[in-house]
UniProtKB/TrEMBL annotation:
Originating organism: Iamia majanohamensis
This protein's name: cholesterol 7-desaturase
Cofactor(s) the record lists: Fe cation
Lineage: Bacteria, Bacillati, Actinomycetota, Acidimicrobiia, Acidimicrobiales
Disordered: annotated segments: 325-348
Pathway: Steroid hormone biosynthesis; dafachronic acid biosynthesis; Hormone biosynthesis
Catalytic reaction(s) noted: cholesterol + NADPH + O2 + H(+) = 7-dehydrocholesterol + NADP(+) + 2 H2O; cholesterol + NADH + O2 + H(+) = 7-dehydrocholesterol + NAD(+) + 2 H2O
Sequence ranges assigned to domain Rieske in this UniProt record: 13-115
Keyword Membrane tagged: yes
Length: 348
């Protein structure tokens, strides 16, 4: 029995940091419930393709080498170009036209290495991820990066953004964000909110502007106390687990030490809250028809927007209304309170 009524979504997703794959190097990956290999050719272009050689199944990310602008299988030396076409068999005068490897469009932008995933290999990128001007002028320092694996579908993590009420109960915050606007247009979701913070000078309205570019990439701008830019990615590992990567950039406060201290404190607080959310995500059931309060956030608007990224459709309309999580004996004692404690004592 599947845990969720929806499959892996399509879109742009982060699979690594750009500096994780040096020129001439390969890297084994696993996302979208499939083995992949990333490699960078001699012209410094990043490529991502399915990992297994169509000859006899060797994994190109384990022992494969980059030769010029081609990747070579470690098993028998077959070579493939950036389109996955077999271009050389060293012990044959002929190539194998049927030996084709699926490749994925790549994009390196805003300090992230992204791939376009769609279950249909014939469907190419349908939107772009814009380059951020804040990262070009030198005003913002960073990034400070965090990374987590969560045993939950990517949609569950994304839905958390429109849920203001949980801040008081999961994160024990005195004030909760007030969503002032939520608008979607095509693959982009634009949410604006205000969160009030007590300071020695009185209450300050912190502003949060979040732009989601499909299900995999979000740009979040925090302002009011200290200007911070968060470049967020959520990538499906499979249909029941996800990886998040947060890159934080902070506007300079005048000197490097002050900027670093403030940035580290901000990141620690966001990371604390993320760790508190994890036990809830991993143990909650998905309800297709939740019993919402009249003051809850725009859950159903978010779900309607997210539905467009399921090429195979969903099972939201069948007779099941509750999709429970698996039984994990080793996780039975996990609670948000325990997550809070671990976050305060060095959780990353």
């Amino acid at each position: 029995m599947s845990r969720y009524p929806f499959p892996i979504p399509f879109g742009w997703f982060q699979v690594c940091e750009p500096d994780e794959v040096a020129t001439g190097a390969t890297k084994a990956l696993f996302y979208f419930d499939r083995h992949l290999v990333a490699w960078r050719d001699e012209e410094a272009h990043l490529h991502v393709m399915d990992a297994f050689c169509p000859h006899l199944g060797a994994h190109l990310g384990h022992g494969g080498t980059v030769e010029g602008c081609e990747i070579q299988c470690p098993f028998h030396g077959w070579r493939f170009d950036d389109e996955g076409t077999n271009v050389d068999i060293p012990y044959s005068t002929r190539t194998n036209k049927r030996a084709k490897i699926r490749t994925y469009p790549t994009l390196e932008v805003n300090g992230k290495a992204l791939v376009w995933f769609h279950p249909d290999p014939e469907v190419g990128p349908q939107w772009d991820i814009p380059a951020l001007p804040e990262l070009e002028g030198g005003e913002f320092h960073g990034p400070i990066r965090t990374r987590h694996t969560v045993m939950a579908h990517a949609q569950e993590l994304g839905e958390n953004a429109v849920d203001s009420a949980h801040f008081r109960y999961v994160h024990n915050t005195a004030e909760v964000p007030e969503i002032t606007d939520y608008v979607t247009e095509g693959p982009v979701a634009d949410m604006r909110s205000i969160q009030r913070f007590p300071t020695p000078r009185g209450v300050v309205d912190g502003k949060i502007e979040s732009l989601g570019y499909g299900p995999g990439v979000s740009i979040v701008r925090f302002s009011g106390i200290v200007d911070t830019l968060l470049v967020s990615s959520t990538t499906p590992i499979d249909a029941e687990s996800s990886e998040t990567r947060f890159d934080f950039y902070t506007r300079s406060l005048g000197d490097a030490e002050t900027t670093s201290n403030v940035a580290q404190a901000f990141v620690a607080e966001v990371d604390r809250q993320f760790l508190e959310d994890m036990p809830v995500w991993e143990h909650k059931a998905h309800l297709t028809r939740p019993a919402l309060a009249d003051t809850d956030g725009p859950f159903m608007a978010f779900r309607k927007w997210y539905q467009q990224f399921y090429a195979e459709g969903t099972a939201e309309g069948d007779e099941r209304t509750l999709f429970p999580p698996p039984y994990w004996p080793e996780k039975m004692d996990e609670t948000p309170a325990k997550a809070t404690a671990s976050a305060r004592h060095g959780g990353s």
